[in-house]
Amino acid sequence: MAGSHLKDLSAFLMVAEEASFTRAAIRLGITQSSLSQIIRGLETRLGLRLFARTTRSVALTEAGERLLGLIGPAMSELEAGLARIGELRDKPAGTLRLTADEYAVHAVLMPAIARLVPDYPDIRVEITTDYGLTDIVSGRFDAGVRRGGLVAKDMIAVPISAPIPMVVVASPSYFARHPAPQQPQQLVEHQCVNLRLPTHGEIYAWTFTRAGRDHRVKSEGQVVVNSISAMRDAALQGVGLTYLPLHYVQDRLESGELVEALSEWRKTYEGYHLYYPNRRLASPVFTLLLQALRDNLDDSRKRSTAKPARGTGKHTPAKSPRRTT
Q1: Is 235 buried (19+), middle (13-18) or exposed (0-12) by CB count in 10 A?
Q2: Quick one: pLDDT at residue 276?
Q3: How far apart are CA 132 and CA 91, in angstroms?
Q4: DSSP per residue, 275-289
Q5: What per-residue confidence (pLDDT) applies to 175?
Q6: Which residues in the chain belong to E strands, given as ranges?
Q7: Fewest C-beta atoms under 10 Å: which of 43, 51, 60, 89?
Q8: Whole-angstrom distance, CA of residue 105 vs CA of residue 102
Q9: Residue 140 pLDDT
Q10: Residue 208 contacts residue 214 (beta carbons within 8 Å)
Q11: Which of 2, 78, 3, 11 is nearest to 42 (CA)?
């Protein structure tokens, strides 16, 4: 009976996490009707509704929110304990669940994972791309990746990337039709390709720095996307100016496919950090990922010291690991 209840609670957590019976059923490897039956049975035993369901959405009720807060951390601890038991195997094995924004996946996580997975066939990595400040405990993630200043104060935070300079770029064909802006305020006269944050629904602000002061500018344009790869593609095709991490478009700048504007106003953000709960006991799989991330950062520093990348300006070393309280 206890094993059955544990499976039911796992199913509840999956639906709460996905906010969708369809997606949760796919991840659990069962049919949607079977999952609905499991949740109805759990609600019947508790005598409470856990989800408010419509044809378009699934949301937790007040009782569901309380249950999630009660069992979410406990299930995370249980999974961590099972992972530690896996240490008895000859090779590390298990699943890592991570959350990161799109550029962090591209620039930080994927290079580290490429180091890791060929040598450890029993490791699985599941990444959720998310621009929000995800609660990794309730979301049952092993860790998250965000810029350092965005990490919650009750998390362990380890630097895993260099600082992130941002650039305004467009294609030569666009600048052939429009003179390049000399100040951020002139962006109102241009077509700007903007990013609408998928998590919050907001337009991402373009921020510039001059004489130690930040300037936020509202950019306008006919095209709004929710992916930085789409922003880069739009710029390459001459749609307009866009605002992207320098290293995401460095090769296109060097090839001449893109041209930077407002280079004297570059804003540089703090580098990415891997963050996870204070109470977490690291599994071998987690330790391997952290080492791969640190190795990539070391390699990046060595390359920067040996031969500074053209157009990157001064390189600022990442800070040493910090523990927040």
Answers
A1: buried
A2: 86
A3: 34
A4: EEETTPPPPHHHHHH
A5: 96
A6: 51-53, 58-60, 94-100, 123-129, 143-147, 155-159, 164-170, 194-195, 206-210, 213-217, 224-225, 242-245, 259-261, 268-269, 272-277, 322-323
A7: 89
A8: 5
A9: 80
A10: yes
A11: 11
Residue 22, pLDDT > 70, answer: yes
Say if residues 119 and 289 touch (Cβ distance below 8 Å). no
Phi, psi of 122 (to 5 degrees): -95, 5
pLDDT beyond 50 at 267: yes
pLDDT, tens digit, for every residue of 187-222? 999 999 999 886 667 888 899 999 889 999 988 899
Low-confidence winner among 82-96, 116-130, 184-198 (lowest mean pLDDT) = 82-96
Q: How many CB atoms lie within 10 A of CB 88?
A: 6
**pLDDT tens digit sequence for 52-79:** 887 778 889 999 888 888 887 777 777 7
Q: From the centroid of its chain, how far is CA 166?
A: 17
φ/ψ of 5, rounded to 5, equals -60, -40
User: How big is the CA angle at 142 (ends 109 and 322), to the nearest 5 degrees?
Assistant: 75
The token pair at 152 is 């919650």
Distance in angstroms (rounded) separating the CA atoms of residues 270 and 264: 18
Give the Cα separation of 219 and 189 in Å (integer): 9
Strand partners, 58: 53
CA 104-289-155 angle, 5° bins: 70
Global confidence as pTM: 0.67
Q: What is the pLDDT of residues 124-165, one digit of tens each?
A: 899 988 877 767 777 788 888 988 777 767 788 889 999 999
Two structure tokens written together for 167: 């650039």
The span from the CA of 64 to the CA of 59, in Å, is 9
**CA distances, 86 to each of 56, 90, 91, 122, 132 (Å):** 40, 9, 9, 11, 32
Q: 3-class SS at 52?
A: strand
Q: Are 21 and 28 contacting, i.e. CB atoms less than 8 angstroms apart? A: no
